[in-house]
Each structure stands twice: as C-alpha cells, then as structure tokens.
Amino acid sequence: MTNMIQAAKNQVADLTQAAYERAAAAGALPAGAAVKATVEIPKDTAHGDYASSFAMAGARALHMAPRAIAQTIVDHLELEGSYFNKVEIAGPGFLNFTLGPRWYGEVLSTIETEGPGYGSGTEGGGKKVMVEFVSANPTGPMHMGNARGGVLGDTLANVLARDGWDVWKEFYVNDAGNQINKFARSIYARCMQLTLGEENYQFPEDGYQGGDIRELAQGFLAQEGISFPGDTAEEDWLEQMAQFGLERNIPKMESDLNKYGIQYDKWFLESSLHSSGYVEDTVSLLTDKGWTYEKDGALWLNTTELLKKKYLAEGKSQEQVDKLDLKDDVLRRANGFYTYFAADIAYHRNKLEERKFDLAINIWGADHHGHVARLQAALDGLGLDGSHRLVIVLMQLVNLLQDGKPVRMSKRTGKAIALHDLLDEISVDAARYYFNNRAATSPLDFDLDLAVRQDSENPVYYVQYAHARICSLVARLAEEDRAAVPAAAAVDAAVLVSPEELALVKSLAQFPEELHLAARDYDPSRINRYLTALAGDFHRFYNACRLKGEEANVLGARLKLADTVRSVLANGLNLLGVTAPEKM
Question: What number of other Cβ atoms are within 10 A of residue 25's Cβ?
Fold first, then answer.
C-alpha cells in the first residue's frame, strides 16, 4: 500500500541525488562522493514541507561550504513532474522542499483507490502472531481492568492485522489452581451459611465476597436432587461447586465480551495443560536441560542463572547483574502439585513450539511486571528465544471517576464495577474509545460523566460528529445543489491553497505511518490521537473554507477532500471497533 509521506521523502532523496550527479557531470561539484543525507519534516513547515541535509552531510566529502553545495544542488534540480514546486536554502544549508498540487492530488487518489484498505502495511510479512488478552480468572464478573485490557488487546490485534501480520486472538482461562480452590470454598461457605445460618458458619477471610458468589450458592442448592451437606465430604462438594461455577461464569464472560465487540479465535483452558500431562512434560524438559534442582521436597527452576544469562546477552555488565536481587521459582511443590508459573511456562511453550507462533503478545496488568523477565528467561531455557518472541504489554490501572470523585473498586469484596454494568451506563463506542485513549503505560482516568456527554469535550463524540457532519454535508449538497462527490481524477488539486486545506490533506497522508507505528510500538492509542487530530483539522477546514456557492472546480475539490476525510475517519474508527454514524 502507498505511504505518500514516505513517497515524498524518497522523492526528495532521488531529486537531490540526481541534481548532485548532474552538477558533478558539469564539473560544478566533485564526482563520486557518497553522501548519506537525511530527509525530515521540519517542525515549522512555513518555509518548506521536507528538508534535506545533503549539503551539510556532503561538506567534508565535497570539500565545500554547505551553503555553496546547497546552491549548486538547487541550480541543477529538475522539479518538473515531481511532487514539489519550490526549493529554498535555509540556515546552514538545508534544502527545503515545498509540496505542489501533484502530491496533494495523489493523496486523494490513493485513498480513493485503496478504500477501506488505506493505511495497510506489509511489515508483518504474513508471520503468525498471537495476541492474548483479558485472560481473567473465571471466579467473578468481568471488571474495569478487564475492560481496558479487552479493548487494548482487540485493537492491537486489528492494527497488527492491517500491518501485515497473521493474527490470532486468545483468552487463557485460569480454570485450575489456588484461585479455583478459593472460588469453590467461597461457594461452599455461602451454601453452608444459607443452610445453617450465617451466624453458624464462618466465611473464609480470603474468600470471594461478591454477590455473584451468593447467587451461585443459591443456584447450586436449588438444583434438583441436591441434599446438602448430607454425608458428602467437603472436598467432593468443592469439586462439584467449582465445576458448577465455571460452567456459568465462563459463558457470562464470553457474553460480556461479545457485547463489548470482542470475539476470540480460541478460549484456551489452563486445565487442559494439566490433564494432558503437558505441564509435567514441560518441567521434565527444563530438568533435562539442567535448569532445575530439588530442595525441601520441591522442584525449583534455576531462575537466577537463567536471568543472569538473559541480562548479560542483553548487554548488562556482570557488575550490574551481580547487584540484582534474583530468586529462583518453585515449579512443583512438595505436595506434588505444579505451580501457576509451571503452567504458564507450559502454555507459552505451547504457543511458540506446538502452535508455532512467530510472536506471542500478552496484555498484562502492571502488577505482573516482575513476572515478565522470569517467563522470558524460562522460555530461553527451553530454547524458544522467549526474550524476543514473547512481548508483554504492561497496562496501568484505570481510575474510574464520577461527579469528579474516584469510584473505589475491590473485586474480592464484591465492590468492583462489572463490565456488564458499565455497558448499561455508557455505549460500547464510548467504552472502547475511552479505554484505548491512552497508551497502556499510562494510568487512565475514566470519567463516566464525560463519556455520556454529547459535546466536543467527549473525544468519541467529537470524532463521530466529524464523520456525521461530513455525511450530512455531502447529502445536503447533493440534494440542494446537485453537487456529487467527484472522482479524484476529476479534481484540480491546484485550487486547494488555503492553510486549512493543505493541512487537512497532510493529515490524511499521515494515517499509514500512524498505523505502522501503532503496530511497531504495540500502542493502538496512536489511532485515537490521530483520529482526534484529523477531526480537529476537518472542523477547522469546514469553518474556514466555504463549499456552497463556490466555483464548480473549488466546490468539487473541497467536497472530495471532505468525503476523503469521512472515509479515513470510518477506516480508523473501524480499527477501534467503534461505529461511524451518518447522523447524530
């Protein structure tokens, strides 16, 4: 796909090199110099849109002052048929190129030709990437942190797909281990209280206290044929209750995420790793490779040595590594049960070795930061290059605000704001836009009051309104003036001369680069920032440049420009999973 900004940069380099070769052939500059110049977009484009450093970069090789070189290059430049209509010398010898009508016209025609695919790239090269996100414990409702991770992972997956990756989306269901035991014991305790009276059975201090646990207990007791507690041992009840709770909670999670616009390629059960023997097999492989040892009846991973090896390979000095407080990890407890870390290593081995993903990306909460290097190092120990093939995007917390005050949340006490409750208060569009509005590395303030406002202070409303405004404009001009949006080939881009018009075309040209950078940096919030900026540029253009009553060529060019903005706004909103309304 075409990136018109990169195309302009490439042309500056080609034009400058061709001018140098002509000057050398004419004897005006020494021949045979290899000049490594840069081409940049100046911060202040008042005197040019692209700046080449050729004259400064070539001063030593050409044995001339940079401004003299620059003047010679300008004297031998041939701009006819290029994207540029003017070149000026600035400062110590920068060559400042100003874009001409051909480039502006090609931006419009490129977007028209590529349609919904505009902005797509090939950086991924068809390689397989798994994006694993949310992966919440199935012990209670989806909450606000899951909401942020959900839209971040889903949008990142969309962005990576548009940048040429073969994308797979997965939810890892933690349906085994201590948290499931705690879940079952919480249901059991509520069942006992409902049967014997709350005063006659103490609820565990670390149990899940939410209302959902009480509902599960009531549902369990209401089953036909249940005689509780009867003669059945507590451990047998726990197994039944865990299964009962999971069979109800997992479908609810799936339903909540579907409502949120998220669908996965696979819901992967942690329990399957244990039942298949894959965790045991993975730990045996680590043992075979010499990375484990036994102590106090438990099997330990030599995480310390694995991390030292990893950090030294990354360029840390031995002195720096020696100062780190590194610790080993238990893989199998003295009671024979495998730890969550052992299962996690097995799961990621499954991703990289069994299913052969080239890259695995996980969206995790920032509280998991200490787990990142340890897991990568364990995969390195298996020979799977986890330091490069496993990418962890750490996500900071969400601060929920209402009436200007923070809303406190605690999942354990049942005071968390559930995702399904949130989506009853605000639209899916607002939720998805807001939760992706900041980079994952930044804490996010989610203002419930602002999210439902119908004005320009609400960023999703601001962007959607720009799209709807253009749809209304196009429809009104078609009805009142019989003015249809022209094809790009019929547009005279030379009539687009106002600063607002030129800035708007440049903004449109920026989309492919923003999409690529969002994929490269695993930061889909770049798309939000781009769309907000594009909407702002459109509103400024609309307020400054009249359409109705203008000459036919001016009307046609401005109408095409506006409709092109509409298509790019829809393109970007689609990446975010947000609708592009035609009326508001």
Answer: 11
Stated pTM of the model: 0.91
- DSSP labels, 432-497: HHHHTSS-TTS-EEEEHHHHT--STTSHHHHHHHHHHHHHHHHHHHHHHS--PPPPGGG--GGG--
Report the distance separating Cα 188 and Cα 145, nearest Å. 27
In degrees and rounded to multiples of 5, residue 232 shows phi and psi of -75, 135
Q: Which helix (H) or strand (E) holds 330?
A: strand 329-332
Cis peptide before 229 (omega within 30 of 0): yes
Count of CB atoms situated within 10 Å of the CB of 207:
18
User: For residue 537, which of 577, 515, 513, 565 has the smallest C-alpha distance?
Assistant: 565
Of 532, 512, 442, nearest to 163 (Cα)?
Answer: 512
Which residue, 261, 297, 22, is CA-closest to 134? 261
Give residue-wise pLDDT tens across range 55-109. Answer: 999 999 999 999 999 999 999 999 999 999 999 999 999 999 999 999 999 999 9
Question: For residue 334, what are its two tokens?
Answer: 């003295």
Tokens of 500: 């607002």
Residue type, 195: T
Is the pLDDT reported for residue 337 higher than 80? yes
Matching residue, tokens 């197994």: 239
Question: Are 347 and 278 spatial neighbours (Cβ–Cβ below 8 Å)?
Answer: no
Q: Strand ranges (DSSP E) for 58-149?
A: 84-90, 94-99, 128-132
Instruction: Spell out the SS3 assignment of 253-283.
Output: HHHHHHHCCCCCCEEEEHHHHHHCCHHHHHH
Which of 136-145, 235-244, 505-514, 554-563 shows the lowest per-residue confidence on average (mean pLDDT)? Answer: 136-145
Q: For the residues of 216-248, what is the DSSP string, one character each?
A: HHHHHHTSTT---STT--HHHHHHHHHHHHHHH
Beta bridge partners of 294: 299
CA–CA–CA angle 187, 192, 196 (5° rounding): 155
First to last CA, the chain: 33
